[in-house]
Write a structure and sequence with these properties.
The structure is a single chain. The protein is of the alpha/beta class. It has 21 helices and 13 strands. The strands form four sheets. The protein has a five-stranded mixed sheet. Strand 11 and strand 12 form a beta hairpin. Helix 8 packs across helix 9. It is globular. It binds iron/sulfur cluster.
């Protein structure tokens, strides 16, 4: 759709005799899924949305040629009908704090110059010219940044483990194997701001003593792979990657490895095995990757969003970052807001923002006058948060207390019509499908859970099924080898915890 709008705009510009030069720049995603395709006309910053090719013709003829805003194509607040001229006037944008997404939707991701124009590679320059590796690690530790892939492990500590570990060469890996249904945070950053990840990986390479990085990205993200490839090529051309970065003698390079679509390869040990060319299966830990990762050597592995936070932390300082968020969860988090909510899309908010603010202030509430029922965070590893906890601050600890998890950022909203048992069944079917089969608690346990959920949802549930699901869930969590299995029962356990009456209704209403 976007390409058709772009072509129509370019054709119109060529046809019209404009008295000024107009540059058409393709950016990454701005975030508001339900408003796309969008266009911003500068210098005024007028935000046009839901465009069709014919609309681009009108914008060219009216706005670009005659300087008149095309009013019926700008945003209107659904409740009040009041118009917003620029995207900064729209709640969906102005209530966000964008750090990881600072450049997506703003710059041309295929232009290293545009990244540099927005302070790109300055952090790497500062690190190489003014800081020791220990100072870099110290700064990242002090910032309080925790891994955005799901587990929330302190990033600086991970770097320190790798820096101190014996063994050479050392490696740096970017986990871009984003597989949670409904999650597309990492994809958006790679497609919209690939240099931020490359710059961060090089900074980590300097801090930990690694000279080689790998981005493991799923094959389902062809545009991300294409833009990353281009970004790597450009960075090498400019001497921002390679043997002698900025002429400092420090060398670091990055290669891409494309995954073949197995969800389990998002688990770090499976991912590393896949990079090595082996079957992508998890292995027991320890050794942890920081000590024994790729080919048994010390390896730092962080996900895309974690990396994207690094350059601003270096440039603005640890205190700046630690000043955003809550006591134990610093900075911001990007969520993919989906499901029964008016404004779907990517949003980045300070940690500690309440669920209510995300869903109602930014998300615009529930469509069709329906009531909010629950939010599912963390995809197949996560859990549900019911309406009575709408004011929970979204941070690692608070969500875990409620039986949900932060996860990588999937946030699916459900209204009063959603069946929570169906939802739990959907996720169990997903993990059962994606289980690698290496260990029996996950391979067999999730299969048994799915059978029970199947019969419950088909009206053939039995006495004791709920208790059996709980017992199986506890067993799988305790016995499974990797994170996929250990978290697989979460959607079932959390829906039983908060919506037990729905399971009972399924089982007993047919008697
Ligand atoms: Fe494989 Fe599941 Fe065991 Fe993980 S928990 S190793 S995905 S079978």
């Amino acid at each position: 759709d976007c390409q058709a709008v772009k072509k129509s705009l370019l054709d119109s510009i060529n046809r019209l005799k404009l008295d000024k030069e107009v540059k058409v720049v393709e950016t990454g995603c701005m975030g508001p899924c339900d408003q796309g395709p969008v266009m911003v006309v500068y210098p005024e910053g007028v935000f046009y949305r839901r465009l069709k090719p014919a609309d681009a013709v009108e914008i060219a003829e009216e706005h670009l040629l005659k300087g008149r805003v095309v009013k019926h194509l700008i945003y209107q607040t659904p409740e009040t009908g009041s118009a917003a001229l620029t995207f900064e006037q729209i709640d969906f944008f102005n209530k966000q704090t964008r750090i990881a997404l600072r450049n997506t939707g703003i710059i041309n991701p295929e232009s290293v110059e545009e990244y540099i124009a927005r302070n790109g590679y300055q952090a790497l320059g500062r690190v190489l010219s003014k800081m020791t590796p220990e100072e870099v690690i110290d700064l990242v530790k002090k910032s309080g940044l925790r891994g955005r892939g799901g587990a929330g492990f302190p990033t600086g500590l991970k770097w320190e483990f790798s820096a101190r570990a014996q063994g050479k060469p050392k490696y740096v890996v970017c986990n871009a194997d984003e597989g949670d249904p409904g999650a597309f945070m990492d994809r958006s950053i790679l497609e919209g701001d690939p240099h931020s990840v490359l710059e961060a990986m090089a900074i980590c390479g300097y801090a930990t003593g690694a000279g080689q990085g790998y981005v493991y990205v799923r094959a389902e993200y062809p545009l991300a792979v294409q833009r990353l490839n281009l970004a790597i090529r450009k960075a090498r051309e400019y001497g921002l990657l390679g043997e002698n970065i900025f002429g400092t003698g420090f060398g670091f390079d990055v290669e891409i490895r494309v995954g073949a679509g197995a969800f389990v390869c998002g688990e770090e040990t499976a991912l590393l095995a896949s990079i090595e060319g082996r079957r992508g299966e998890p292995r027991p830990k320890p050794p942890f990757p920081a000590q024994g990762g790729l080919w048994g050597k010390p390896t730092v592995i962080n996900n895309v969003e974690t990396w994207a936070n690094i350059p601003p932390i270096i440039l603005n300082g640890a205190d700046w970052f630690a000043g955003i968020g809550t006591e134990k969860s610093k900075g911001t988090k990007v969520f993919a807001l989906a499901g029964k909510v008016n404004n779907t899309g990517l949003v980045e908010v300070p940690m500690g923002t309440t669920l209510r603010e995300i869903i109602f202030d930014i998300g615009g509430g529930i469509p069709n006058g329906k009531k909010f029922k629950a939010a599912q965070t963390g995809g197949p590893s996560g859990g549900c948060i019911p309406a009575k906890h709408l004011d929970v601050p979204v941070d690692y600890e608070s969500l875990t207390e409620l039986g949900a998890i932060m996860g990588s950022g999937g946030l699916i909203i459900m209204d009063e019509d959603t069946c929570m048992v169906d939802l739990a069944r959907f996720f169990v079917e997903f993990v059962q499908d994606e289980s690698c089969g290496k260990c029996s608690p996950c391979r067999i346990g999730t299969r048994r859970m799915l059978e029970i959920l199947d019969r419950i949802t088909k009206g053939r549930g039995r006495d004791g099924d709920i208790e059996l699901l709980e017992e199986l869930g506890r067993g799988i969590k305790a016995g499974a080898l990797c994170g996929l299995g250990q978290t697989a029962p979460n959607p079932v356990l959390s829906t039983i915890r908060h919506f037990r009456e729905e399971y009972e209704a399924h089982i007993y209403q047919h008697r």
